Amino acid sequence: MGSPSPWAVLLLTVLAGLCAPPTAQGKPNFIVILADDLGWGDLGANWAETKETPNLDELAAEGMRFVDFHSAASTCSPSRASLLTGRLGARNGVTHNFAISSLGGLPLNETTLPEVLRAAGYSTAAIGKWHLGHHGRYHPIFRGFDYYFGIPYSHDMGCTDTPGYNVPPCPPCPRHGAATSPTNKDCYTDVALPLFENLTIVQQPVNLSSLAERYVEAAARFIQQARDSGRPFFLYLALAHMHVPLEAAYGAALRGMDAVVGRVRGLADGCGRGSTLLWFTGDNGPWAQKCELAGRLGPLLGAWQRARGGSPSKQSTWEGGHRVPALVYWPGRVPAARSSTAMLSTMDIFPTLVALAGAALPPNRRFDGLDVSPVLLGQSDVGHKVLLHPNSGAAGRDGELEALRLGQYKVFYTTGGAKACDGSVGPEEHHQPPLIFNLDGDIQEQQPLAVASSEYQAVLPAVSRAYAQALEDIATDNTSVADYSRGPAAVPCCSTQHVACRCRAPASRMALPEQHVERRAPRRCL
Where in 156-297 does DSSP place strands (E)? Predict the structure, then answer.
């Protein structure tokens, strides 16, 4: 992301120094940082070969590290929807990714974490990647966030003038200004990547070189305004890192992400050390088909699948697809330098933060996430007994639950690899009886238990019961269905009169409006 300007350093220093003490109500502040396509081995505290994450490693040394922590799905939109609702895609309706032309998004009858926290007195902001619908009422400003600054989907889903690695460049402006309009194709050079502040596109195409810096500055301003108001805050910071690197090499991009985390941690500490809980994790595993641009799996090799072709990481239900780094830092509350083996999920963030805020879960629905505050506070090391892993694009129907964990046992009813660096795609295979691996002795998922073995025969009845009970629980719940229809009206475009929807706007003031409705008119492209 490059070095911050001297002005930016001064600004952040001043803002951190001006932060007010903890709120009178005694409610903690919350910062959730979500990395994109981060490998379990991309954290130095997890994998000794990784040297680019000193700030994250310091967080691990001063907080709690979770070694058996899982995203709720192995691809972007379903994972993020589950984090913000505490519910699997089979319940909340989000089973695969939304597009730049998606008319829908996270179903409007689903209650989000920021909606619950705002009702409990919190100031709320989303900064970064959204990818849960941007058209109409699906925009984050209508989903519980007081403030939004970021991009509506992945940063390679639109062209830019700072393309970097694997990001398409925008076509140049025509010499005589021929009119163009966005198409309904998934051709990302047609429409420039937009940057939103609340409901207004403030830059299109966004300058990716300065995006991380602008995120940190926006976070600093939001935190200061929340503290000035005397209200606790919830900041959801969804980074562009490490989807495809913003730097020339993966290691440099990883160092850039680590630097952002370090600066945000400094903002949290500056607002009263111990007043803010910071939770860092990832949305899913690394995108293996990007080869040298993909993250590190560490020991999560998915060896059984690799032998048959395809990748065992992002989009798959192998450990490398959904086991992600996770750290919680809360000085004076979360024990320092502790590693937890509790089996936890990104879905636990919702009920845990709601409980710590003294709020109540929404009624008339069931949650897959747990209140794991006793684990965070060092009072327990017990997490989920059963964890379901939905199909996320590699094999099987999207959102179907055909893999699960029961204790140390990993169970597959369907297997198949995502596209690997070598171009191979593992064949879809259905298993009845299921494949069962004992992860305690086979974290690489190399050799399933022999069906005739006494261990397999002993665990199979428990697996079958747990699986049937989980499916029955979902079938009898209040579930939602997402709208995945598409139309050109949903494509973010500040002006159709210019190629790729280009526009140039003055630097954003980062003002946090009192109203949720943005009153500034979209700026014309120049």
Answer: 195-197, 200-203, 233-238, 276-282
Q: Where are the beta strands (DSSP E) in 305-426?
A: 326-329, 338-340, 344-345, 386-390, 401-406, 409-415
Q: Identify whether 516 is a catalytic site residue.
A: no
Q: Is 76 a catalytic residue?
A: yes
What confidence score (pLDDT) does residue 188 get? 57
Contacts of 334 (CB under 8 A, 6+ apart): 63, 64, 277, 328, 376, 377, 378
Strands 29-35 and 429-438: unpaired
Two structure tokens written together for 126: 């989303």
Angle between helices 6-18 and 211-228 (to 10 degrees): 20
Q: Which of 322, 326, 290 is nearest to 43 (CA)?
A: 326
Q: Among residues 76, 493, 501, 525, which one is catalytic?
A: 76
What is the layout of strands, in order, in the sheet containing 326-329? 200-203, 195-197, 147-150, 123-128, 233-238, 29-35, 276-282, 326-329, 64-66, 338-340
Segments in 166-272 forming alpha helices (H): 211-228, 250-270
The span from the CA of 334 to the CA of 262, in Å, is 18
**499 part of a folded domain:** no
How far apart (Å, rounded) are the C-alpha atoms in residues 385 and 53? Answer: 31
Task: Enumerate residues 6+ apart whose C-beta is below 8 A from 464.
Answer: none
Q: What share of the chain is helix, strand, coil (3-state, %, to 5)?
A: 30, 15, 55
- Short-list 112, 218, 105, CA closest to 153: 105
- Asked whether residue 57 is assigned to any structural domain, the reply reads yes
Of 70, 96, 131, 322, the active-site residue reads 131
Nearest to 112 by CA among 103, 102, 122, 100: 122
SS3 of residue 280 by DSSP: strand
* pLDDT single digits (tens) 417-461: 899 999 999 899 999 999 999 999 999 999 999 999 999 999 999
Instruction: Answer yes or no: is 373 within a domain.
Output: yes
Helix (H) / strand (E) element for 465: namely helix 454-475
For the entire predicted model, the pTM comes to 0.91
Burial of residue 186 (CB within 10 Å: 0-12, 13-18, 19+) is exposed
Q: How many domains does the chain have?
A: 1
| Site of tokens 């990001």 | 167
Query: Could you tell me the CATH number of the domain that includes residue 75?
Result: 3.40.720.10
How many Cα neighbours within 13 Å face the side chain of 292? 6
* 497 within a domain of the structure (yes/no): no
Of 371, 302, 397, 506, the C-alpha closest to 78 is 397
pLDDT in tens, 32-76: 999 999 999 999 999 999 999 999 999 999 999 999 999 999 999
**Distance between CA atoms of residues 38 and 207, nearest Å:** 22
DSSP classification of residue 299: T
| Structural domain boundaries enclosing 194 | 29-176+183-490
